[in-house]
Amino acid sequence: MLGQGGTEGLSGLAQNFQSQGLGDTFSSWVSTGENKSIQPQQLQGALGADVLQQLTGGSGMSLQAALPLLAQLLPAVIDKLTPQGQLPQNNNMLQQGLGALFGRR
User: Fold this and answer.
1) What is the largest CA-CA distance in the chain?
2) Domain spanning 9-101: CATH superfamily
3) Over the range 51-68, which residues count as b (16 or more CB within 10 Å of their CB) and which as e?
4) Sign of the CA dihedral running 35, 41, 45, 51
5) How far is CA 40 from the centre of its chain?
6) Residue among 34, 32, 35, 30 at smallest CA distance from 15
């Protein structure tokens, strides 16, 4: 999940953000400094329709309701998953964390 083109987890997400010109934003979430904000439309482009459908599909939330929530929460989630300022080896952590937020196990 959370990666396009066969790349998953935080590494895949970092690549998606980079390809959308949002690499600096994603890097700010991983680093130990202040997190840059992201607009829901930017997040939609970086995540892609398939990932957003996976995230919201079982939650009962519409995409319009989920995007602003994700734009607020995702920087904090990634920041908490990367306390040392580096991507963790366990790519499943992000999937598990976001799945819990949206009621999926």
Assistant:
1) 34
2) YidB-like (1.10.10.690)
3) bbebbbeeeebeeeebbe
4) positive
5) 12
6) 30
Q: What share of the chain is helix, strand, coil (3-state, %, to 5)?
A: 65, 0, 35
End-to-end CA distance of the chain: 13
Asked if pLDDT for residue 100 goes beyond 80, the answer is no
pTM for the predicted model, two decimal places: 0.77
**Structure confidence at residue 56 (pLDDT):** 79
Domain ranges within the chain, ordered by starting residue: 9-101
At 7-32, the pLDDT tens digits run 467 888 888 899 999 999 999 999 99
Give the C-alpha separation, 16 to 13, whole Å: 5
